Amino acid sequence: MPGRGPKKRGLESDVSEHLRSLADLLAAEESLQADGEWLPSPLDPQSLFSTPAPIELEVGCGKGLFLASAAEAHPAHNYLGVELAPGYAHLTATRCARRGLSNARVISGDATLMIRSVLGDATVHAVHVYFPDPWWKARHRKRRVLCEPFFEQAARVLIPTGVVHVWTDVEEYFDEAMVSAAATGLFKPPRDVTERAAQNDFDYRTHFERRTRLANQPVWRAELDRSDRVPPARQPITMFERIRLRTGEADPPTK
Ligand SMILES: C[S@@+](CC[C@H](N)C(=O)[O-])C[C@H]1O[C@@H](n2cnc3c(N)ncnc32)[C@H](O)[C@@H]1O
Question: What is the pTM of this model?
């Protein structure tokens, strides 16, 4: 799904407050760097919001159902969505702008790079990953978001009481993700999440949850609490990733 997005945006809304690109966030500092690997200054995500509040980060917010609904339901928290597909990032930002949600922001860019190399330590209260792309083909497996390095860096950006929320319709990916999280030693054993009955057609956490449940397919869900173990340090952005940032290329590399 990365790289794709809605073609028609309908009536344009002003998304200037709600939407930023990761490349733009890093551009000023990047332009001052010599070539090679680069560790940017750590970003405090509070700087993206007008009012300080606990930050909840969504990886791959897609069309933004969760981000906008959660921001509306929990005004005392700040919601930051990071979405690789520029069209979907714009759509989510539009949804948030139209509802006047000052506690929702969208970054257009690669969430794995943002978590690994940009966000400061212990700056996030929760990381939400809902229905991550399964990348079925063997040669694309390395693109899966949920892997050991991801969980290591998610643990780093989380506060000590922080939580990772994982929901997927792919049992094999879910099992693999739980093994990866456990292997880091940075999370306690996963807690199950009970399925909630939907009161109406749009009473689902995300678009993909809605689609999956209306098709009577199962969803695997877990919440992972941080353990006391100290996570690894922030990792630099590689030269190759810097080129992708400069050229505005959204997709991860295909090899
Ligand atoms: C299957 S969709 C699920 C969307 C939404 N979470 C839902 O449940 O309806 C996966 C989304 O993750 C996005 N995505 C994939 N890799 C990403 C990455 N590295 N960083 C940010 N978004 C990513 C895709 O563009 C897509 O919008």
Answer: 0.94
